[in-house]
Automatic annotation (TrEMBL), chains A, B:
<dbReference type="GO" id="GO:0003723">
    <property type="term" value="F:RNA binding"/>
</dbReference>
<keyword id="KW-0949">S-adenosyl-L-methionine</keyword>
<dbReference type="GO" id="GO:0106339">
    <property type="term" value="F:tRNA (cytidine(32)-2'-O)-methyltransferase activity"/>
</dbReference>
<dbReference type="Pfam" id="PF00588">
    <property type="entry name" value="SpoU_methylase"/>
</dbReference>
<protein>
    <recommendedName>
        <fullName>tRNA (cytidine/uridine-2'-O-)-methyltransferase TrmJ</fullName>
        <ecNumber>2.1.1.200</ecNumber>
    </recommendedName>
</protein>
<comment type="similarity">
    <text>Belongs to the class IV-like SAM-binding methyltransferase superfamily. RNA methyltransferase TrmH family.</text>
</comment>
<dbReference type="GO" id="GO:0002128">
    <property type="term" value="P:tRNA nucleoside ribose methylation"/>
</dbReference>
<comment type="function">
    <text>Catalyzes the formation of 2'O-methylated cytidine (Cm32) or 2'O-methylated uridine (Um32) at position 32 in tRNA.</text>
</comment>
<keyword id="KW-0819">tRNA processing</keyword>
<keyword id="KW-0489">Methyltransferase</keyword>
<dbReference type="InterPro" id="IPR004384">
    <property type="entry name" value="RNA_MeTrfase_TrmJ/LasT"/>
</dbReference>
<dbReference type="InterPro" id="IPR029028">
    <property type="entry name" value="Alpha/beta_knot_MTases"/>
</dbReference>
<feature type="domain" description="tRNA/rRNA methyltransferase SpoU type">
    <location>
        <begin position="24"/>
        <end position="172"/>
    </location>
</feature>
<keyword id="KW-0963">Cytoplasm</keyword>
<keyword id="KW-0808">Transferase</keyword>
<dbReference type="GO" id="GO:0005829">
    <property type="term" value="C:cytosol"/>
</dbReference>
<comment type="subunit">
    <text>Homodimer.</text>
</comment>
Length: 257, 257
């Protein structure tokens, strides 16, 4: 039993972000199949597709990794295996190392968003983000091979971030920095907004109905009517809403006769 | 075997964000222990601590959930169980529903950052973010109980986001919107930057050494020297770096004599 909501295994076509644009993700000595699979899934969620594994513990491929990837098998199938960090980064131009703690190395330290801004500015170069072992992270020697550091603004009460969660945050930040963070749908009106004429006519009908129902004490009629107009304005009614509201009002007044 | 890098089970003290400030997280009919545990962990990473579960599938507590929480048991221990969304949200003032697809409901649709900006602006109210079932999300009826919608800017090639990953992104966005996204360490210089005097003296020593080593063709001496000064400037050397560099240069020139 591994992970979540596994979707079907039909192959994913990569059409949005061709390889070579998003950063390469390098996992150094990852141990758990769940983490590698969830890393692949998190990468695919945001358009990253190039995964490099440095000496995955207990061999490769790992049992359970495909299930944990939940359909992101195109990332796993293209993953490459390397014997050392030096070998894994040889062809790259700019490499960031993630670390949760200060290393006493004089490198620039970035939050994920600022780091991905740097990568996007280096368009055309081959860039990567490197993640360390589940328990102990990257060694100081491995960090020393990176150009700069990424760290995460975690709560000091509970700073331990899961490996695949860290990859997710970097992928998300890259998507935002690269201008691809478009929502799959918007909150556009399904019907045009009501004209002020339609709205004022609705106010009139409502107030007339309430007059007839003797809702208002006469001395408070004006102030209550204004408050109710306020309430209706706050609803940002559409044309369809006004029709629905009018229908409901008609039904209620019919019932009263 | 469940999840990642489980840390020790010593109780976590919540000192950074007292309950009542960060949004409540509501999981509706979550199925997998891994997802609930990883949700608790992701919440704790960013200072969220109030978890409500609506009808968790196959009962509660679930086997494996504590392991998946990897130490964030303070979130699980305080989690409350509810029979319906209506019951779970009764005492709240503003509720956001996460959904991956358009629902034909005329609600505002937010990216996580914008949504969390709304919540932060409602400080003092009790707010929540609601997440649906692993495979099918929230029902339209459940979404209709929310004030507005959050959706995620995922890749159209691979939009399926894991439940705990979605919680992580919301928690991260809340941390940023609430001004708490401080990095645990910075890239401050470990030694003061070198003065220009120290740097110019280093240029002088280096150029003298290279003159003596007959490195420069005479007609190119000036241009090469300027290029090397450029290289050294790009290093943003500290006082300590200049001392190290001078030492290395002395060692190299000693060797040559």
């Amino acid at each position: 039993m591994t992970t979540p909501d596994a979707s079907s295994e039909k192959p994913t076509k990569i059409t949005e972000v061709p390889p070579g644009i998003a950063p390469v993700v390098i996992l150094v000595e990852p141990q758990l199949a769940e983490n590698i699979g969830m890393t692949a899934r998190a990468m695919a969620n945001f358009g990253l597709s190039e995964l490099r594994l440095v000496n995955p513990k207990n061999g490769w491929p790992k049992k359970g990794v495909r299930e944990a990837a939940s359909g992101a098998t195109h990332v796993l199938d293209r993953a490459t295996i390397h014997g050392s960090v030096a070998e894994a980064i040889g062809d790259l131009h700019y490499v960031l190392a993630t670390t949760a703690r200060e290393r006493g190395q004089m490198k620039r330290v970035f939050a994920p968003e600022a780091a991905m801004g740097e990568l996007v500015a280096r368009e055309g170069q081959r860039n990567a983000v490197m993640f360390g072992r589940e328990r102990v992270g990257l060694t100081n020697d491995e960090v020393s091979l990176a150009d700069a550091i990424i760290t995460f603004p975690v709560s000091p009460d509970f700073p331990s971030l899961n490996l695949a969660q860290a990859v997710l945050l970097v992928g998300y930040a890259w998507r935002q920095a690269s201008g691809r963070a478009v929502l799959p749908f918007s909150g556009e009106l399904l019907s045009p907004p009501a004209t002020r004429e339609a709205l004022m006519s609705l106010f009139g009908s409502l107030e007339t109905a309430l007059d007839e129902a003797r809702f208002y004490p006469p001395e408070k009629r004006e102030i209550i009517a204004r408050n109710m107009r306020d309430m209706l304005h706050r609803m940002s009614l559409t044309e369809q809403d006004v029709r629905t509201f009018r229908g409901a009002l008609r039904a209620l007044t019919r019932k009263g006769t």
